[in-house]
Write a structure and sequence with these properties.
By secondary structure, this protein is mostly helical. Helix content is about 45%, strand content about 0%. The protein has five helices and no strands. The radius of gyration is 14 Å and the shape is globular.
Length: about 110
């Protein structure tokens, strides 16, 4: 599962426009977008600063984020197995979210301008 690395990449490039894609664009990419919304943004769409206090993410919050993605990409159909992976990472006590930290690279991100 690439979720920890993907979240680190997104966090490292916060404030920039990013394209999240997969082969067909209807399963993994929307799941990652929902995970990013849940983990990295507050309710108003602003970036969260990830300090030592990690906020809890519920199944309902993940579903809410997926609904937000589906509003703009109505053909996405995230399979149950992928949602289970997200729940294992974010919701399960002792899951990956409780110990995840963004791995910062020493090299500067490429300038897209």
């Amino acid at each position: 599962w690439v979720l920890p690395a993907a979240l680190s990449f997104l966090y490292r490039h916060r404030g920039r426009r990013l394209l999240i894609h997969c082969t067909r664009g209807d399963t993994r990419a929307p799941a990652l977008a929902a995970a990013a919304f849940s983990a990295l943004f507050d309710a108003d769409g602003g970036w969260l600063e990830l300090g030592s206090a990690r906020r809890a993410i519920s199944k309902e919050a993940l579903r809410h984020s997926l609904v937000a993605v589906q509003r703009y990409h109505p053909y996405c159909a995230v399979p149950r197995r992928i949602m289970q992976q997200l729940n294992l990472f974010f919701v399960t006590k002792g899951g990956g979210w409780s110990s995840w930290t963004p791995e910062f690279s020493t090299e500067a991100p490429h300038d897209a301008s």
